[in-house]
Amino acid sequence: MKIEVAIESDYQYLFERDSHIAESLIRTKIRDHEIFIFRESNQEIGWMRYGYFWDNTPFLNMIWFDEEYRGQGNGKEAVIYWEELMKQKGFEVVMTSTQSNEDAQHFYRKLGYKDVGCLLQENDPLEVILLKKL
Predict the structure, then answer these.
(1) pTM value?
(2) CB atoms < 10 A from the CB of 79, how many?
(3) Which of the residues 36, 70, 94, 121 has an alpha carbon 20 to 30 A from that of 88?
(4) What CATH code is carried by the domain that includes residue 53?
(5) Is 79 helix (H, G, I), strand (E, B) or coil?
(6) Main-chain dihedrals φ then ψ at residue 81, nearest 5 degrees
(7) What is the number of domains present in the chain?
(8) Per-residue DSSP letters for 91-122?
């Protein structure tokens, strides 16, 4: 798997698939190098994007792989890649979150993330906030 910073030509791919981001932010995040595209044999197989919690702590907002590329270690490879990049940028802590009814919480805990809080929004499952010291 190749992990590449998203570029303008990736816009349509992201626009068509990532329903969890406002369309107006896709190009901004591409410009700011906050989206990565995963490729296998030059074919897009997923993406990862992040932002900053409190404008100072890297926060992994989304990681997505097409179904046939899950359970093969790609997610772990992608998260470790992102963590190393954040460490190189001088950050000592990273964060993410997942809903309490999703298996992703176990994935992050295996990678060393610790539960540090939660968020409860009306009509949604509990959102578990996770943190990892790099």
Answers:
(1) 0.94
(2) 21
(3) 70
(4) 3.40.630.30
(5) helix
(6) -60, -50
(7) 1
(8) -SEEEEEEETTSTHHHHHHHTT-EEEEEE--T
What's the rounded Cα separation, in Å, for the pair 58 and 91? 8
pLDDT tens track, the chain, 134 positions: 999 999 999 999 999 999 999 999 999 999 999 999 999 999 999 999 999 999 999 999 999 999 999 999 999 999 999 999 999 999 999 999 999 999 999 999 999 999 999 999 999 999 999 999 99
51 secondary structure, DSSP code: E
Tell me how far apart the alpha carbons of residues 28 and 133 are, in angstroms, rounded to a whole number.
27
> Are 95 and 58 contacting, i.e. CB atoms less than 8 angstroms apart?
yes
Token digits for 65? Answer: 């792989």
Q: HSE of 22 in the Cβ direction (CA atoms, 13 Å)?
A: 3
| Interatomic CA distance for residues 69 and 96, integer angstroms | 21
